[in-house]
Write a structure and sequence with these properties.
The chain is α+β, with helices and mostly antiparallel strands. It has six helices and ten strands. About 25% of the residues lie in helices and about 25% in strands. The strands form three sheets. It has a six-stranded antiparallel sheet with strand order 5-10-6-7-8-9. A two-stranded antiparallel ribbon has the order 1-2.
């Protein structure tokens, strides 16, 4: 008896879940979804000099995307041959930042230094690469950094050091200034 009652209750519950054809064909009034409009930023028209509102969308350049990707690795520990957030070396940082933006470079800093065009420090801009000779026995390029900012002659770059991991430095720091070898532009 209990089994029969249980089966009957089970059948009733399944049948109550069934949708009816009338419900499908029934016309409903449309419901509107209201979302917040994006904040408008005022702009000044050069013709009228009156304030207008428009949606400002900043243009993101490939250089900005490369720098943004590199900045995601700040604080990551140094790992020789590393290219991930679990560990990164200097050329791996540059290699990955360019690779995710469809620019393929050699994996080693001394080979990267053969690409692009050489530029003077006065011509350096965001996205350029700085190459260094950090007192190695062969007196060859063995370190690379990506220029993230240039303001009033101060060149800031992101790179991976064996002691501090991925950091930003300024070229006017004594160590980096003495070790500097050349700057190259790839973009």
């Amino acid at each position: 008896m209990q089994k029969t009652i249980f089966i009957l209750i089970l059948l009733i519950s399944f049948s109550s879940c069934k949708s009816s054809k009338r419900a499908k064909n029934k016309k409903h009034t449309s419901t509107k979804v209201i979302t917040k409009k994006p904040k408008e930023t005022p702009t000044i028209s050069s013709k009228t000099k009156k304030s207008k509102t428009s949606i400002a969308t900043p243009k993101t350049t490939k250089t900005d995307k490369i720098i943004k990707h590199a900045n995601q690795f700040k604080g990551v520990r140094y790992k020789w041959g590393g290219t991930t957030k679990s560990g990164m070396d200097c050329s791996g940082l540059v290699y990955e930042s360019f690779r995710v933006n469809d620019i393929y470079l050699p994996r080693i800093s001394r080979d990267m230094a053969k690409k692009g065009t050489k530029v003077s420090l006065k011509q350096v801009k965001k996205g350029d690469l700085l190459f260094f000779k950090t007192q190695n026995r062969r007196n060859a390029i063995n370190h690379v950094g990506l220029v993230t900012d240039v303001k009033k002659g101060n060149i800031t770059f992101i790179h991976a050091t064996s002691s501090k991991g991925v950091i930003t430095s300024v070229l006017t720091e004594t160590y980096w200034n003495k070790a500097f070898a050349e700057a190259r532009r790839l973009l």
